Structure formats: structure tokens, C-alpha cells
Design the sequence.
């Protein structure tokens, strides 16, 4: 059986394909010209200075923010149409710290929170929740109230929540924010494990590339409204970043860590 | 027990119990969402806004309940549309509520008739409810519960995590308006029982107590409903047996007396902390 040439298999297209994307928010241009492809099963970190539009870019992929111009397709469809196959973990939210809801009930939102009706108890649904909780090693944690858990514990459960839609793409906004080094490493390993075992593309926003240099496949660097994508050692270089920032930038490598210096951010 | 059976011989007590129960169930169930959505100020404002509608209806010589429904639903839509952002919602609600209260006062000043009807709107007149009003209230309360059941999962999702719910295709702004409209309908029903000034007790009291004790949403809603029914039944019986104290005073007092020890003794979120790590603190 061959697929007719006129109907390219959507499974073979890039998970995300963005071209010349321009985004204005509140009268300010956040992204001027951003373009990149994300392939199946790759682990990509979005880097860039504060206010570079990293979180905004995730919202563009979700169709929550509409570009002024340019084209974004996700899983072969215009952004926003394929959200059922995207697992999204937004940045730190009120739900994490304040809610007295049991963590399992929060995780459940990922399964059927968007369906109408009261949702009668179902053994099959509970087993699916157990399965994703096991994947993040959080079955016991899920018995506690969300507000009683630490930042790393909450992050693990929110990743489980995102997995319930059986996603082809995971979008994680600052999953490492406010974690200490040990927890940071734990979450990175977990994200990498899920990326590999599920063959799901993962795009995550972070502010420090150093803890995960050896774990990621590619870097999507945003600065000055523009983007560069590639392996870390090709993107985080003096030439590439100076070009992106439009001003001379030094990249210093020392002790296995990289630092970007001199960028007007 | 003997008193209860004796009381049930009076039709007005039966009407009061039917109406009170219907209102208690609807108010307690919607109260859970109101408390979790941090929309208690809106819940407090709607009946007060309703007072203006009822006073206006009395002035025009029509049934107060029509004025109640019209103005609270209108106000609910206005609040839902104008106050998208949690941070300025209270301000919007406050401005709309005080304007409505001003209107209500104007209508009162213009009204030259018997003030007892207006007094009833402010403080409730559950012992004076007709059979027909009891039936209408029960039917409307049942309809509100049915709508809440249909909206249950997306409403819960958007209550606790609006951002993610929006990303998953839940119509968050629409649900926000719909919920306030349901709250407005329930508030309008409850005004006859508790009065505009005191019905907030039935919305906030049972739900606030229940969310302190039970974590799961369905469990908290069930406990909230049970508490609401208990307050209303006991309140009606105490008031009827005593003869002087008003029903709404008894209900408000019962709600307070139960909430206070729970508030002082039970930590929010329940019985124990799980796990070995300390709760996360944002690094400085």
C-alpha cells in the first residue's frame, strides 16, 4: 500500500513548522521573524533573554496567540486545531501553590477536564491515570493536596497530566523554574526519559542551558525578535548569536559550561 | 422529634421546608464553585443587586421575583463580560453593586405603599411562601443543578486552571459568564428564603466549611449540600418552635457556629501532609 502522492502522510511532516512568524502583543512587536521546524521525538530547549518571547512562542504553537503574519502548522494543521494531541504545562500558576485539590484530581483534568457532563466513575479512566502517574513515579504523591507538594513534585504531576492526552508534542514552559539543582536534574532526566520512551517531541522553555547541555538534541534561541535553531554547539557560538542579537556577543566556555556575555538584553 | 411532626401539620411549614431545601441544595452546590473560583464577592453582590430589581418591580406593581431575575441575570452577564481579570473583578463588582443599591434606595423612596414587601426582600419571608412559589422554586433549583452537572468537568477545570483549560479548548470566558448567570438565578430564588442581605450565608457558609474538610470536589459538594440542608431544616424548626427569632437569623447563626471551629481547627486541604520534601518556597 502506498500513500497517494497528493495526500502526504501527516505523520511524516514536521511536528511543528513555523515560517516568518511575526507577533505583536499590546502594541509591541515580540517576534519579528521566527522560523523553525521541530521533528518527531526530538528534545528542544527554547533559550533567550527575558522578554524574548519564549512563552509567547508556545502560545503561538497552541493557537492562543495569533501571529500578525507568517505561518505556523502543528501536526500538519494550522496552530490551534491539533491541541488535543499537544500536552502543555504552562508556567507556574496559582493552581500549583494554592489549591487544596488532591493532586490526582488535578492530573485528571488532563484526561477529561474538557468534556461536558459530570463524568461517571470509570475503572478504565482510573487505570490510565495510574499509568501516567507511574511514568513520572508519582502515584503516591498524587494522594496529597497539590498545595502540599514541593515545586519538583508538582512539576512531575503536571507532566503526568500533560501525558494523559497521549501527546505527539509536549510544550513545557519553564519546567525548571525555582527548582534547586538536584530537583532540576531529576526533572530533566524525567523529560528526557519520556521524550525517548514515547518518541514525543518536547519543546521546553528554560533560562539556563547549562544543566541540560548534554541532554538536549537542539536549541531554539530567541533574541531580538528572531530565532536560530540547531545543536547547542552550533547555535551557542559567537558568530551565530552576534548575528542573532545584531550586536557583538561573546560566548565563553569554561568547565563544561557556556556563558553568553555582552548581549544587550 | 415530636415538635417536628407537629410542625409538619402546618402547610406553611411544609412549603418553607420544600423551598428552603431546594434553595439550600442549589446554593450549596454552586457555592462550592463560587468559593473555589474566589468569586465570593460576586456571590455577595448579586442578591444585593437583586434587591434593586425587586424594589423596582414592587414600584411598578409586578411580582418582585421578576425584577430579581431580570436584574441579577443582567448584572451577572455584565460582571462576567467586564471582569475577565481576577485582579479587577472585585472593583467591577463593587461599582455595579453600589450603583444597583443606589437604584434600590431610589425605588424605595419613590414607593409609597406598604413597606413590608420590601422588608421581606431584604430579610426573607420563608414562612410566608405559597405552594405555587414553593413548586416554582423547587423546579428552578433542580434545573440549576442539572445545568451545573452538565458543566461540571469543564467548569471545574476552568475554575482551578483557566490557562490550561483554555489551551485544551474549554470556552473559559463563556463558562465564567454562564456560572455567574446560574449564581444569579439561584440568588434570585434564595432571596425569598433568606432575603437579599442574608442569603449569602447559604452560598458561602456550607461550601467554605466543606472545602476545609474534604479535598475531592464531589465530596466537598456533597458535604456542602448536607450542611446547607441541615442549616435550613434546623433553622426553620428552631424559628417555628420559638416563634420570635426569624428563620434567616437562625440559618446564618448555625452556619457561623459550624464554620468557626472548622476554620480554627482544620488546616485547608485536610488531614495530613504527604511526602518527605518541604513545600516549595520561591527562592529569593
Sequence:
Amino acid at each position: 500500500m502506498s500513500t497517494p502522492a497528493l495526500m502526504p502522510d501527516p505523520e511524516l511532516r514536521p511536528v511543528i513548522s513555523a515560517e516568518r512568524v511575526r507577533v505583536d502583543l499590546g502594541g509591541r512587536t515580540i517576534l519579528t521573524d521566527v522560523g523553525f521546524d521541530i521533528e518527531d521525538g526530538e528534545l528542544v530547549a527554547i533559550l533567550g533573554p527575558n522578554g524574548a518571547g519564549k512563552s509567547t512562542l508556545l502560545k503561538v504553537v497552541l493557537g492562543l496567540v495569533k501571529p500578525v503574519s507568517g505561518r505556523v502548522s502543528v501536526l500538519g494543521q494550522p496552530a490551534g486545531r491539533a491541541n488535543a494531541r499537544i500536552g502543555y504545562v504552562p508556567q507556574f500558576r496559582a493552581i500549583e501553590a494554592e489549591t487544596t485539590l488532591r493532586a490526582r484530581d488535578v492530573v485528571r483534568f488532563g484526561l477529561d477536564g474538557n468534556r461536558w457532563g459530570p463524568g461517571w466513575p470509570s475503572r478504565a479512566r482510573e487505570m490510565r491515570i495510574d499509568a501516567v502517574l507511574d511514568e513520572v513515579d508519582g502515584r503516591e504523591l498524587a494522594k496529597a493536596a497539590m498545595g502540599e507538594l514541593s515545586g519538583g513534585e508538582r512539576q512531575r504531576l503536571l507532566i503526568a497530566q500533560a501525558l494523559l492526552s497521549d501527546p505527539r508534542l509536549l510544550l513545557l514552559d519553564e519546567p525548571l523554574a525555582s527548582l534547586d539543582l538536584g530537583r532540576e536534574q531529576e526533572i530533566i532526566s524525567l523529560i528526557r526519559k519520556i521524550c525517548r520512551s514515547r518518541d514525543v517531541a518536547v519543546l521546553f522553555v528554560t533560562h539556563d542551558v547549562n544543566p541540560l547541555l548534554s541532554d538536549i538534541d537542539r536549541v531554539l534561541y530567541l533574541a531580538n525578535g528572531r530565532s536560530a535553531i540547531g545543536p547547542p554547539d552550533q547555535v551557542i557560538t559567537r558568530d551565530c548569536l552576534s548575528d542573532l542579537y545584531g550586536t557583538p556577543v561573546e560566548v565563553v566556555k569554561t568547565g563544561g559550561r557556556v556563558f553568553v556575555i555582552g548581549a544587550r538584553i | 422529634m415530636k415538635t417536628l411532626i407537629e410542625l409538619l401539620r402546618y402547610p406553611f411549614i411544609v412549603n418553607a421546608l420544600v423551598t428552603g431545601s431546594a434553595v439550600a441544595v442549589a446554593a450549596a452546590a454552586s457555592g462550592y464553585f463560587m468559593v473555589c473560583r474566589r468569586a465570593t464577592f460576586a456571590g455577595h453582590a448579586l442578591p444585593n443587586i437583586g434587591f434593586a430589581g425587586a424594589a423596582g418591580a414592587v414600584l411598578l406593581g409586578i411580582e418582585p421575583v421578576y425584577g430579581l431575575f431580570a436584574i441579577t441575570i443582567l448584572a451577572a452577564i455584565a460582571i462576567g463580560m467586564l471582569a475577565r481579570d481576577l485582579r479587577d473583578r472585585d472593583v467591577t463588582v463593587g461599582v455595579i453593586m453600589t450603583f444597583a443599591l443606589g437604584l434600590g434606595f431610589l425605588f424605595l423612596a419613590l414607593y409609597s405603599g406598604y413597606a413590608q414587601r420590601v422588608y421581606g426582600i431584604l430579610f426573607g419571608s420563608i414562612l410566608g411562601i405559597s405552594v405555587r412559589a414553593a413548586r416554582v422554586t423547587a423546579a428552578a433549583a433542580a434545573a440549576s443543578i442539572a445545568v451545573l452537572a452538565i458543566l461540571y468537568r469543564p467548569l471545574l477545570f476552568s475554575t482551578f486552571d483557566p490557562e490550561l483549560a483554555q489551551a485544551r479548548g474549554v470556552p473559559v470566558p463563556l463558562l465564567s459568564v454562564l456560572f455567574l448567570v446560574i449564581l444569579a438565578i439561584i440568588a434570585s430564588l434564595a432571596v425569598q428564603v433568606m432575603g437579599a442581605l442574608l442569603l449569602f450565608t447559604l452560598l458561602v457558609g456550607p461550601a467554605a466549611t466543606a472545602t476545609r474538610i474534604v479535598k475531592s470536589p464531589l465530596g466537598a459538594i456533597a458535604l456542602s449540600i448536607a450542611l446547607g440542608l441541615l442549616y435550613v431544616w434546623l433553622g426553620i424548626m428552631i424559628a417555628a418552635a420559638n416563634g420570635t427569632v426569624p428563620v434567616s437569623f437562625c440559618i446564618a447563626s448555625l452556619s457561623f457556629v459550624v464554620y468557626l471551629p472548622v476554620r480554627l481547627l482544620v488546616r485547608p486541604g485536610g488531614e495530613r501532609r504527604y511526602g518527605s520534601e518541604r513545600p516549595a518556597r520561591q527562592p529569593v
